[in-house]
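To the team - NAP complex, inputs and output below.
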Amino acid sequence: MSDLLILGGTTEARMLCAQVHLMGIDATVSLAGVTSRPETLPIKTRNGGFGGVDGLCSWLEMHRTKALIDATHPFATKMPTNAEAACARLGLPRLRLVRPGFARVAGWSSAPNLEAALLSLQPDQNVLLTTGKNDLGGVAQRPDLRILIRTIEPIEDLPSHARNLLIRPPLNWEAEIDMLAQHEIDVLIAKDSGGVTAPKLDAANALGVRVILIDRPPQPPGPIVTTVDEAVAWLPREVAIGT
Ligand code: NAP
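Output:
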């Protein structure tokens, strides 16, 4: 049994888990299982993919789940689409919780994807990517740049003009300043992940490093909120009071 399924992997999901735990809601959080040190959360936790829409439907039916909150990352694409399809098939209430994008600062630019961002750059620049290990589109096409790719998990088989820097975030502002200065970074390419603070962006601004933000992917249709309080307020009555 699990009245509520939370699809996690974000700060907002962590905060929501804490909140539903305090409310005594029978909830499970699901993590993709992609990091080697998964988080410890105060509610039932499962790890790993469901096996597509069919697998998710089976899980929801088996656990007699009454509602789903999709609090995956703003750049997650498959899981939100699968959640939308599974909940539509089963007639389950579903909510997307996704934090707002970064407040824009004059001088920043944006690009639809990493490849477009890299192709827009002049040669001979030191570029820092914080866009993750999964999409390295355009890296191979720019041997005239020096590209530093910051990730939590290692990347194999990079071309010689690209290097992998392993870091476990979050870094504070001072650490971000040191990193940008030490590697003489000219351009920072980051996802428009959003969040209350972004020390890497503040540090880039302070040092005059150019910032390019990758646009978010479109979200599946359906209700979207941006805060944990709104997500809690959305909970169907039978989930909130456990009937
Ligand atoms: P994705 O493209 O939406 O998902 C790929 C597959 O991973 C899904 O089809 C699903 O497998 C499985 N999956 C994803 N999230 C899951 C979850 N919470 N519980 C169980 N299975 C999950 O997602 P992604 O971009 O690879 O991200 C994976 C996870 O890392 C997400 O939970 C996301 O919140 C987190 N994350 C992503 C980013 C990013 O930039 N994309 C950044 C930080 C954190 P099945 O089809 O087998 O169910």
